[in-house]
């Protein structure tokens, strides 16, 4: 909370200083409905290239906009908040007509968004909600609470406490599990964790699940910037501190494939998955190719597939609506309160992928080829 307040405060200071130095933008914004696509530029700000989903997101949005004749200014911020602020500032001063932003820290862009509003540039929050600003015009994402529900359900299915159809499984437990969450400054991390915990709670309450470390609060289990190495280190620490009595961890709730790979490395280094020691049930998200291979090989248990091609398409539809001076069509106008207002949203469905689903969900849909799944590497 304190952090959010501080971030909002520094955003406000930045907004003032931007306004003071006349950073409202040269071209861009205003009534664009009569202009040709080739005279319009969409600024696309993505968080990082370390995770392949954001590369795919950026490429898809760019290609789809360019196919319609628009100019695109696509920037990646290397997971560095000042870099992203600077890139968005520059898009505004260079006359972007719409901004599409996937924020690194959802609370850190209020100043930029004020400058965009002053220049009448609509802002679309892409996948991650931008918080603490009245100047977010639209939000395109997936149903993030359901992602968390799906991750927890996959953990329960993997352990045998539930069957895939949702009915009660034959396993009884008690099972030792550990929990991980994403970056606290990413609004999605809270939705994922809430969805997961609401789903796991009855099983923790009836003691079929036990979080042996006792770490169940999001602040205790969050991984800053979603970093694989940090997740690996935390898993190593958990194994040392809570499983040095001969007990085994049997399930790990992981909210993102990159974290899952760090967790799996820590587990393998400690002998899990070797002779006589089963790999715990590990969940994931994003269907990253290295993790899809791990699922195919029986090492990771599941992932949540979010088709970034469809998300890119929604971002393009929303951007075009704004450029034609129309309001994009929302399918959710209740869920995403950013601290200042409820942002109209378009939310896409998500799909759980176990080993058996790789072909139908990922290969048949053209997301990955069978060769990529086998090698664990994207052809690009
Ligand atoms: C996205 C996830 C992604 C995570 C880490 C979240 O905001 O919704 O798809 O796994 O960021 O990049």
TrEMBL record:
Residue ranges of every copy of the Periplasmic binding protein domain listed in the record: 42-326
Subcellular location field: Cell envelope
PROSITE patterns in alphabetical order: PROKAR_LIPOPROTEIN
One Pfam family cited in the UniProt record for this chain: Peripla_BP_4
Annotated keywords: Signal
Annotated GO MF terms: carbohydrate binding
Signal peptide stretch: 1-22
One Gene Ontology term, aspect cellular component: outer membrane-bounded periplasmic space
UniProt main location, coarse: other
UniProt-listed NCBIfam families: ChvE
Name recorded for this polypeptide: Sugar ABC transporter substrate-binding protein
Organism: Micromonospora costi
